[in-house]
Every structure is written in C-alpha cells, then in structure tokens.
Design a protein that fits this description.
Strand content: 5-15%
Shape: elongated
Number of domains: 1
Radius of gyration: 15 Å
Mean pLDDT: 83
Number of strands: 3
Distance between the termini: 44 Å
Helix content: 55-70%
Length: 85
C-alpha cells in the first residue's frame, strides 16, 4: 500500500512549481511595465498567461508583449510560454 504522505508529496511538488512560475511571471511583468500585479491577477494555463487587471495595465503589458515574452524565454520554468492574454 502506498503511503499517503508520499502520494501527496507528488502534488505538493507540482503546486510549488506552479507557484514559483506565477511569482516569476509577476516579477518579470512588474519589472518591465513598472506596475504592481498581484498573485490573483495572473493565471498560467496551457502555456498561456491570462491577466486579470484594469485596462490601462493590460494595454501597457500588451504594448511590451514581445519584450516580456523574450524575458520568459530566459527563465527555465517559463520557457514554454507562448502568449499573453
């Protein structure tokens, strides 16, 4: 029988990777756009970054989208990101 704690450790490792990648996404966007996004504003799903923010922040992010995507490619956890929506 599989030990329950060992089984749950697999999921905690996956969740940590997701949290780390979200933190790196927020850090990169905040540094490039000089904005302050929160954790709740960014979601990563199927190599697409979804941003829930006011329109003026989103437009600033989309104006600098190419630069942000280049920054994502330099990070090891974020190199598969294809676009921002």
């Amino acid at each position: 029988m599989i030990n329950l704690s060992n089984y749950l450790q697999k999921f905690s490792a996956i969740l940590k990777d997701g949290q780390e990648s979200n933190e790196k996404i927020i850090t990169i966007i905040n540094s490039v756009c000089a904005s302050s996004l929160s954790r709740e504003a960014v979601t990563l799903k199927d190599n697409v970054v979804f941003i829930k923010a006011p329109p003026h922040i989103k437009s600033e992010i989309f104006m600098r989208k190419a630069h942000i995507l280049k920054q994502f490619q330099t990070e090891t956890l974020l190199e598969g990101i294809q676009t921002i929506r």
